[in-house]
Structure formats: C-alpha cells, structure tokens
Amino acid sequence: MTFDELNLLPAVVQAVREKGYENPTPIQAQAIPVVMEGKDVIGSAQTGTGKTAAFTLPLLSRLEKHSDKCPRALILEPTRELAGQVDDQLVFYGKHQDLTKCLIYGGVKYGAQLKALEEGADVVVATPGRLIDHIEQGNIDLSNLEILVLDEVDRMLDMGFIDQVTQIVRKCPKERQTLFFSATMADKILSLADWVLNDPVRVKIESNSKTADTVDHAIFPVDGIQKYDLLLAMLEKFDYNSVLVFTRTKMDADRVTRWLLDHDHKVATMHADRSQSERREALQGFKEGKYEILVATDIASRGLDISGVTHVINYNVPQNCEDYVHRIGRTGRAATEGEAFTLYSTDELAFLDAIERFIEKKIPRRKLEGFRYRTEPDLRVPGTAIARKKRNRGFNSKPGGFRR
Ligand code: AMP
C-alpha cells in the first residue's frame, strides 16, 4: 500500500513524501481510511508504530484549510514533551496548508498562548491542566470542535488527569469525531472510551510480544552496591550512539547524573522537578547529540520520539510493568535495532517477576565480560511456566461509568 491510496489530501501526501516515508505503517494503513470516513476510532498499538501520523495526517486532510470557526480540532496529550512533539509533526505535515495551530501547556507564561488563541487556531494541541485554565478564563471556546483526539489515554489517567479530561470532553459538542489511543486497555479506560466514543472502529496492531521485536533486551544481575560501577563499565564497553538511562526516583536520577558527569560523560537529566526550560534544553541537547546520555525518570518513557537511541539502560527494575515496555520502546523505533538492558539486584525480584508475567516471556540474563563482580551473577532463568491469564478485554464488556 502507498500513501496515495489512503484518500489523504494531496498537500499532506506531498509533505509525507518530503519526510521520506515510503509506505504507511500497519496502524496508518488501518486507521487513516477510517478517520477519513469521519468515523470514531479506538486504537491500541505498540510504541514507535507511527501512531502520531496515523491521526495527524487524516486530521489535517479533513480540516483542509483555515476557517474562522476555531478551534476545529483538539489533541490532548499527557505531557508537555509529547504535546510539543505532536505539534512539530503537525507543523511538518501541514506545511503546504494554511491551517493555524496553537500549542498549550503549563509551566510557561500565558502570553503567547493567549495571542495564538485570539488569532484563531484551527488545531489546538494541549495538556489537560493548562487547557482547563484557558477554558475557565474564557480564552477558548470548544463549541465548533469537529475532531477530538485523546492520545496516550492510559498515561493521562495514570497521571491523574481523569477529571480534567472528562471536564474538557463535556465542553466539546456531542456531534464530533473522536479518536482515542491508549497503549493499554484496562477496564477504566474502556469505560471512558465507552462514554467518549460513538460506534468506534477498533484499530489494533497485533503483536506476539508486547516488546518491540527490534529490541534486544536482557537482565544484568549485580549486587546493588555495584550498580554505579557496572553502569560505567557498560558505557565503556558498548558501542553506543545515544543512551537513555532510566531511574525509579528523581533523587536516583540526580545521583546517577552526578556520577556520570564525574566520569567525564556528556549527560543531561530530565525529571519532574526540573523546570520546563531545563527539560526542553536536556531533550533538545540529547536529540542534537550535545549530550550522549540522558538520565530520566518515567516522564521520558512514554511516546517520546527520539530517533537514534541505541541503548536503554534501566538503572532500577521498573515497579510498573507497563513502564518497562515503554522504557525499552524508546529504542528500536521504526524498525531500527536497539538494545535495552536492566540492572537487577535480588531485592528487585518481585518487580522482575511481575514484568516477565506481563510480557509473557522470560528475559535472558547476561553478565558483562571483564567486569569484576563482587559475587558471581546468577544467570539462571527461573524455569517455571508462566501462567497466561487471558482476560476478557472485549470492548463494550463493561458498561460506561460516565455520562456525556
Ligand atoms: P510514533 O509511533 O508516532 O511515535 O512514530 C515512531 C517513528 O516512526 C517516528 O520517528 C516517525 O517519524 C516514524 N514514522 C512514522 N510513520 C512512518 C512511516 N510511514 N514510515 C517510516 N517511518 C515512519
């Protein structure tokens, strides 16, 4: 299949061609025709599957050109970084159209956002908190909205945005097209989908594994006290281009950063206690190669599109199984090869066990040759069969707990 067959606006196809994409990815091939027909969509797909273009390309095609009835499309994202990234893609794919856009997120002054809203933005990309502020101050009127996109819904709910999201949806007209994307589909997410969507088409990219096939991942058992040294030894040994190191806490992120800086690595840090400008500088510097290592908490694990990440190193085993999948999904994007390694000490057994159950496979154990381990690492993979709990995840299986 080619992009010409998807009924997209020629101006959009031209931008896609300039971007260098040859063929639509599976989620694009499935979702774009449905969105172009004006239907609601509920989509789940692995990270790095081309989901952003799957909704931005048809959205731009349907809006076509500027209208005074602004805003006509709203895209909700959980974090400022994701919102910025989606906005970047909109700017690129929409470069041959005269649509106007506005990016709304917290942690910055209101001035520029207010001005863009006053001038009339066809498409608004926003994080929920700041958008609510604008709604309450009467700066934005959603009554002409045609398309609502709720992206990374599971993440939005994890971050406690459920009330804001429902409040925003209530401000949108009932007659609209809604596109709903979530990496996971727990009951509370399906219940929200049930309320928000109208006879949706389900788009799902089936995969044998929840983890990207292009990622080689492994566990490196080590005494907790030697984790700093092992991390350093790995960085010396690996032929890396850029490395994302994930830590469980903000304090760990700061400590690991300091340790790596002391050993002459070019490192940036990203976590919730850093200011917006510090986060932007860290991400930008990492993308541009100024920093070869980015140490981050899970704020960076979902959806961030950083190309060329060759290695993900989990300094701790993530406590949340889904975070494991998202973290290692930061490498191996769009079918490029990547490696994802997790430093593991025995006190983290329960977390590792939960992850292996969740991804329904055992992760190979490895040791770093040449590293002086205090105690010989145990490389045996526990042999117990994993009980596969198949839950009924059928859409509509739960009546909605919300009312429009
Ligand atoms: P996403 O899942 O939207 O974060 O996209 C993951 C990566 O795939 C991004 O770097 C996109 O630029 C890239 N991508 C999206 N669509 C295509 C396509 N049709 N062909 C090649 N790469 C793509």
What does the model show?
With 404 residues, the chain is an alpha/beta fold. The chain has two domains: 3-204, Rossmann fold (3-Layer(aba) Sandwich), CATH 3.40.50.300; 215-359, P-loop containing nucleotide triphosphate hydrolases (Rossmann fold, 3-Layer(aba) Sandwich). The protein is built from 14 helices and 13 strands. The protein has helices spanning 10-19, 26-36, 51-63, 80-93, 111-119, 128-136, 153-158, 162-171, 187-196, 227-237, 250-262, 276-288, 321-328, 349-359, and strands at 41-44, 73-76, 101-104, 123-126, 147-150, 177-181, 201-204, 215-221, 243-246, 267-270, 293-296, 311-314, 338-344. It has a seven-stranded parallel β-sheet with strand order 3-4-2-5-6-1-7. Strands 8-13-12-9-11-10 form a six-stranded parallel β-sheet, with helices on both faces. Helix 3 (51-63) packs across helix 4 and helix 13 (321-328) crosses helix 14. The longest helix is centred in the N-terminal third of the chain and has 14 residues, at 80-93. The two termini are 38 Å apart. The relative contact order is 0.13. Mean pLDDT is 86; it is low at 384-404. Bound molecules: adenosine monophosphate. Adenosine monophosphate is lined by residues 21, 24-25, 28, 48-53, 305, 307, 333-334.
Q: Low-confidence stretches at least 5 residues in length (pLDDT < 50)? A: 384-404
DSSP strand (E) fraction?
5-15%
How big is the Rg?
Answer: 22 Å
Given the structure, what is the number of helices? 14
The second-level CATH architecture of the largest domain is 3-Layer(aba) Sandwich
CATH H-level homologous superfamily name of the largest domain = P-loop containing nucleotide triphosphate hydrolases
| C-alpha end-to-end distance | 38 Å
- The level 1 CATH classification of the largest domain is Alpha Beta
Strand order of the largest sheet: 3-4-2-5-6-1-7
What is the count of β-strands?
13
What composes the largest sheet?
A: 7 strands, parallel
Shape: globular
**Class computed from helices, strands and strand pairing:** alpha/beta
In this entry the ligands are:
adenosine monophosphate
- Overall domain count: 2
Mean pLDDT: 86
Briefly note the CATH topology name of the largest domain.
Rossmann fold
Order of helices and strands: HHEHEHEHEHEHHEHEEHEHEHEEHEH
